[in-house]
Amino acid sequence: MVLDNLSESLKSIMRKISGSSFIDKDTIKEVTKEIQRALLKADVNVKLVLKLTNTVQERALNEKPPAGMTAQDYIIRVIYEELLKILGTDSNFDLKPQTIMLVGLYGNGKTTTAGKLARLFMKKGLSTGLIAADVHRPGAFEQLQQISGDVNCGFYGEKGEKNALKIVRNGIKELADFKIKIIDTSGRDSLDQELIDEVHEIKEKINPDTVLFVIDATLGQQAGPQAKTLHDAVNIDGVIITKMDGTGKAGGALSAVADIQSPVYFIGTGEHMDDIQIFNPKKFLSRLLGMGDIDALMEVVKETNITEEEAEASLDKLMSGKFDLKDMYDVWEKFAKPGLLKKFFGALPLGKMPGGNKLDESQLDQADEKLRLYRVILDSMTFYELENPDVLNAKRIKRIAAGSGQGEKNVRQLLKEYNAMKKNMKSIKKNRNFKKMLKTQLKGGNFSLDDLESKML
Ligand SMILES: Nc1nc2c(ncn2[C@@H]2O[C@H](COP(=O)(O)OP(=O)(O)OP(=O)(O)O)[C@@H](O)[C@H]2O)c(=O)[nH]1
């Protein structure tokens, strides 16, 4: 597949980001440099690369991750969003009866694509006829005729006729019963004025419903000026990128498409008539980046939407001396979102606190599971016990263990953690910097332990 090399580079950059323990300015700069190199190697236009990487860098440096999202995930999201802008947003091709005009340069795959489209539309129940309006290339008439026979669709052409407009006019009349008519126009080695005039005239006089630009994925930097000139002449409604099955770079074609801001509707993935796919930018990009389901990542943010006020109130509770088990339960309830608890506890430098009880890595790994278990234990306590944890003697612990089915060991462990948390929170409540950073953490931000510790000393 085209862009394989770019995909490998981007995947390795993504791995690097998600594997880094913290994100600082240097990491962001390094990452954007690497993206820059990878895109340039894939033939993406320099101007576009610079614009993209500058935006990524600026956003990564200045924007705060939303609640529930780590800085790492957020940068991945920023990169994803900015790359998606190049590929365009999802826009489905409207499968309605229409006249389509195909434009593009010689050998880019126009004629083949006309046949592929005919087969695709007919599969969707839309009868299709092809009009052979390439009056310049010897053999173009026969090629389209042959293809229409292969896919069993309608065909109109006038062998030897040099007036493309006349053929199209007659063709539209002759193929009136077909729901979709596809005009295969001439291509050239380069964009000469004669070609531009010809396609411009057909566009003006025939007024097709849709003009589709067929472009070879491996075209390189000349794709840009070609797309622009054709767009100026016929106003391109959408793009079909062919030869996506090749090993080329595709960055040039993609840059050209980004430049004219037309949606890519289809991609060609081989020489056979079935080798055409509806283009889905999000899926394509997710595959390119080696991400499973990037939309799922976005969902985490929605699920963990904690407001600043909520974070502040919970933090005040945490740091007040009056922190009881009910408060602990409430805080956990609020922040027990996927991964958030782990992040929260993971960032607490408890080992550095007087009387600190640092949670080890394996404990952190099991944070979500532990929370579920602790909730069951807390549910087995009376209201009085939750508000007055000091009354929890051996007898009560035994009762709670039996009631929750979690064993005395787990009940004692929960109490141990509660006591450590309460003690630590009390001892740091006057530290404004720490409080501020914790708030960021509660809201899903991320920072390094080193950073946190240096702020505390
Ligand atoms: N691998 C691959 N080859 C393709 C694809 N689309 C077209 N081709 C091949 O590209 C070559 C040129 O395709 P044509 O359809 O003849 O090109 P054209 O743009 O119609 O050329 P003109 O009519 O001369 O303007 C043919 O050999 C096609 O089989 C594709 O998606 N993948």
From TrEMBL:
Binding site for GTP: 104-111, 184-188, 242-245
Domain SRP54-type proteins GTP-binding intervals: 263-276
Pfam families: SRP54, SRP54_N, SRP_SPB
Gene Ontology CC entries for this record: signal recognition particle
Any single GO BP term: SRP-dependent cotranslational protein targeting to membrane
EC number from the UniProt entry: 3.6.5.4
Subcellular location: Cytoplasm
Catalysis: reaction(s): GTP + H2O = GDP + phosphate + H(+)
Keywords: Cytoplasm, GTP-binding, Hydrolase, Nucleotide-binding, Ribonucleoprotein, RNA-binding, Signal recognition particle
InterPro entries recorded: AAA+_ATPase, P-loop_NTPase, Signal_recog_part_SRP54_M_sf, Signal_recog_particl_SRP54_hlx, Signal_recog_particle_SRP54_M, SRP/SRP_N, SRP54, SRP54_GTPase_dom
One example GO MF annotation: GTP binding
Transmembrane segments: none
Gene3D superfamilies reported in the protein's UniProt record: P-loop containing nucleotide triphosphate hydrolases, Signal recognition particle SRP54, nucleotide-binding domain, Signal recognition particle, SRP54 subunit, M-domain
Entry similarity comment: Belongs to the GTP-binding SRP family. SRP54 subfamily.
Domain notes: Composed of three domains: the N-terminal N domain, which is responsible for interactions with the ribosome, the central G domain, which binds GTP, and the C-terminal M domain, which binds the RNA and the signal sequence of the RNC.
Function comment: Involved in targeting and insertion of nascent membrane proteins into the cytoplasmic membrane. Binds to the hydrophobic signal sequence of the ribosome-nascent chain (RNC) as it emerges from the ribosomes. The SRP-RNC complex is then targeted to the cytoplasmic membrane where it interacts with the SRP receptor FtsY.
Known partners and oligomeric status: Part of the signal recognition particle protein translocation system, which is composed of SRP and FtsY. Archaeal SRP consists of a 7S RNA molecule of 300 nucleotides and two protein subunits: SRP54 and SRP19.
The name this protein goes by in its record: Signal recognition particle 54 kDa protein
Source organism (scientific name): Ferroplasma acidiphilum
Gene coding for it: srp54
